[in-house]
């Protein structure tokens, strides 16, 4: 393992001129841009069938103590670099899945290596604070130069968390407390004796039967509150008790969008109307609506900016909070830093949750009334992890230095054009291509999806699915045109094998 | 900040002989043991009233973006060392609260500094894996030499998590899946169409109305499932929807224990009977019982090993799982590595959850049937954090090198004796002293508790409370007799001010 730090240092010269080795040789899409990672391989490398013998043996070893049935590939991170992920058998794949959409600036990124070696990181790792009680003296600075530097427009405060699930759940808790505060008539109103008593046995009014509304096919996490808003697949939910919370319909759009404009607008209108009806009529009053800008686990389901603006209007009209779950869509992948930046909202969401590419988690908010009216209502021991907050700051620095949001918008357009050509050539294998103008956050449906994904490693790419039929692309923000060329070529190879 | 790493390196010689500066000058309890941290101050240092001017100014700055109403003290971790925590104004306090019981081997521990600088740590920080899909090649080794090296007797597998709340909630999920599997007749039985359909709208039978039983005054976390089992204080629960889950009575013991043996045994018997009645009769069937070995947030409430053995018997007799929540009690503080080691159980708990002093989290289990019958049922993107798992491994190495569990048992006895003397001298201020033979996990009740805690910093100690009336001691495992002397002296000083 000692070679990692050294190899990371070697990669420091990220602006080195491209060499023959780093330029794609695919004839149709020759790319001229400098590679961000000069030492990246020029192409995937296949050494064995995947999984190879070393991977199989190591997986059997891990299986003794850790459930490996969801294992995709044991990874040699010391040999992974930039957009390329390596296994134990010498296979090196172009990775457009990126740890379930959570690696933004490449494996063994040299700048992050420096962040990891910094004194701030060491102290954060060895002196882990209870952030609500004993934050470090520089916590405000870490927030202001990191997490809050990229806060969505209109939101200037944050409650930090550990991962997407608890980011969403703490946002839900803030919504419930806010809702009850409005009902009571303000933050200065005291709890009743009955509330104080009933909450200790989980009964109303102290533990009220309120709800969070989410959308069909949505995914918001897998703990008990977040799972109650998750509607992706039965396997995510079966056997786990859930709250009796409402599910609104999410628009089912037809593609290509330009050929179904009127139909799609009507579908979105139908969903909005039903959403508002449910808010008004659901037996457990709705404190907030949570929605993903693009339903990411549930099948890469998109809706138009007009739909989301309509949703914002409905929530305002009905005095429920509007929570945008940017756990998977946030941090640049859609060609904007936050996917909801595409919507041109008149008023910002009440809360925006984040995780994955941020490598840390939490929810942003702007309205000071969303701070609960007393201390210790929104609290836990760690309330996040400063070590991971420092990594996010390093990621933001890389994004700014390399202009990676704009870059991803452009690379996404290039990739989308290439996929459009493939869709014209293989219409049965690339259906409902979607994500135009959404950076590299692109997906399509294919009837032989699982077979498609199964063959991907054999042509040198690591690629994931979403929903039942979708192939989802989740490249890193350092994905470039020459990577897109390799990916397009690989997709065609897979299709030819189906 | 650059000085941290250097000052950490200076502390490497932890076996250096004690100097006059590091030996307590308290006359009654002169200690002879070598200090673990040679550069620790010999005593607390008070430079200003607390909070001092720099702390106040920095807190106001942080308040702009982060809720500071639960803030105890902004901390200068670069100046904190061993058992001593420093603020921005030059105050250095003996810390027996330790980030809510979560720092085990001291601030700026030299061995952890080395771990933080290791190549494994750097790759874990910058190449964060989705552990269920793409674990690193050495993940099995990291588990086997770390988390699993200290697995409770009889439990040899782990599901890793991020913090105490999700450690408990994933354990609850495993319990629900196991319970339904038994009902169905085995792991090979398929879900019914009705289950697959109803779970998508959060309804039974797919989302069954099962429950987890917890105890009055218990604390198990603050997300929606864990909060439904938390019964500590209304402020932790108010306004948050909760599941209709049962609450069993926890024994209310009288102290000193030896004077109330029969009465306490009867009380425990009463609670066990009521627990079993609730398991049999609660309208939402009980899949598991969760209990803390010592109720830590709820007031440091103890029960006897016989009570817990009885509880284990009841759960077996009624086919419900027995989950022991060792989030606060685990990792040595009670003078055993796991507090439930004190019980001499005939069969191990079904699951044991951990976090805090482990600096990472998860649940241990032994029965392979607790792995859900299909992949992706117990899953999330990160499933923990290898960086924090490496820190836990370093902590375990320190615990072994310095024999800190045995050490804590001995120091605890010494501290308890001193407190007994104080309780005899000030019976009105030290009531119900408890934690004898439980390492340094000691508490007592005092009628002026909040006043007591408020004055502690003024005499140079950082100390926390639990429940309504309790002062709880949560020193680190490197807390030594000379620290106990200072603490005892400080407690007496506070009492004299009340």
TrEMBL record, chains A, B:
It is an enzyme of class 2 (transferase). GO terms for cellular component: mitochondrion. SUPFAM superfamilies: PLP-dependent transferases. Gene3D superfamilies: Aspartate Aminotransferase, domain 1, Type I PLP-dependent aspartate aminotransferase-like (Major domain). The keyword Ubl conjugation does not apply. One of its GO terms (molecular function) is 4-aminobutyrate:2-oxoglutarate transaminase activity. Pfam families: Aminotran_3 (PF00202). Coiled coil: none annotated. Its cofactor is pyridoxal 5'-phosphate. This is 4-aminobutyrate aminotransferase. It comes from Aspergillus caelatus. The lineage of its organism: Eukaryota, Fungi, Dikarya, Ascomycota, Pezizomycotina.
């Amino acid at each position: 393992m000692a070679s990692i730090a050294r190899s990371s240092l070697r990669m420091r010269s990220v602006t080195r001129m491209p060499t023959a080795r780093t330029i794609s040789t695919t004839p149709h899409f020759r790319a001229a841009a400098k590679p961000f990672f000069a030492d990246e391989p020029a192409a995937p490398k296949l050494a064995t069938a995947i999984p190879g013998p070393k991977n199989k043996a190591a997986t059997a070893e891990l299986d003794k103590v850790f459930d490996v049935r969801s294992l995709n590939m044991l990874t040699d991170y010391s040999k992974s670099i930039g957009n390329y992920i390596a296994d134990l058998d010498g296979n090196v794949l172009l990775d457009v899945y990126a740890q379930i959409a959570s690696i933004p600036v490449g494996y063994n990124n040299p700048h992050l290596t420096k962040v990891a070696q910094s004194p701030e990181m060491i102290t954060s790792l060895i002196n882990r604070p209870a952030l609500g009680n004993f934050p470090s003296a520089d916590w405000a600075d870490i927030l202001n130069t990191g997490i809050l530097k990229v806060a969505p427009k209109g939101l200037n405060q944050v409650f930090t968390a550990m991962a997407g699930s608890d980011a969403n759940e703490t946002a839900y808790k803030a919504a419930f407390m806010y809702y009850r505060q409005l009902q009571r008539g303000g933050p200065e109103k005291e709890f009743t004796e009955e509330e104080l008593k009933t909450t200790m046995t989980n009964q109303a009014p102290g533990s009220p039967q309120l709800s969070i509304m989410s959308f069909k096919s949505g995914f918001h996490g897998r703990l008990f509150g977040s799972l109650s808003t998750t509607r992706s697949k039965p396997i995510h939910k079966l056997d786990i008790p859930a709250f009796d919370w409402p599910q609104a319909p999410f628009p089912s759009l037809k593609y290509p969008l330009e050929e179904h404009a009127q139909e799609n607008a009507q579908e979105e209108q139908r969903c909005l109307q039903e959403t508002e009806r449910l808010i008004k009529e659901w037996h457990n009053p709705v404190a907030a609506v949570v929605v993903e800008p693009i339903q990411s686990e549930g099948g890469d389901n998109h809706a138009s900016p007009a739909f989301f603006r309509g949703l914002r209007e409905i929530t305002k009209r009905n005095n429920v909070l509007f929570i945008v779950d940017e756990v998977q869509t946030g941090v640049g992948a859609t060609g904007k830093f936050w996917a909801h930046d595409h919507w041109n909202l008149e008023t910002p969401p009440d809360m925006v949750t984040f995780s994955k590419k941020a490598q840390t988690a939490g929810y942003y908010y702007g309205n000071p009334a969303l701070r609960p009216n007393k201390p210790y209502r929104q609290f836990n021991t760690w309330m996040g992890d400063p070590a991971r907050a420092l990594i996010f700051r390093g990621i933001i620095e890389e994004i700014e230095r390399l202009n990676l949001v704009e870059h991803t918008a452009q690379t996404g357009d290039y990739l989308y054009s290439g996929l459009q050509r493939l869709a014209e050539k293989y219409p049965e294998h690339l259906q409902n291509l979607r994500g135009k103008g959404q950076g590299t956050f692109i997906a399509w449906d294919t009837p032989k999806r699982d077979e498609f994904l199964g063959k991907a490693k054999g042509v040198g790419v690591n690629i994931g699915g979403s929903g039942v039929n979708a192939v989802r692309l989740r490249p890193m923000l350092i994905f470039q045109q020459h990577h897109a060329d390799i990916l397009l070529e690989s997709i065609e190879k897979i299709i030819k094998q189906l």
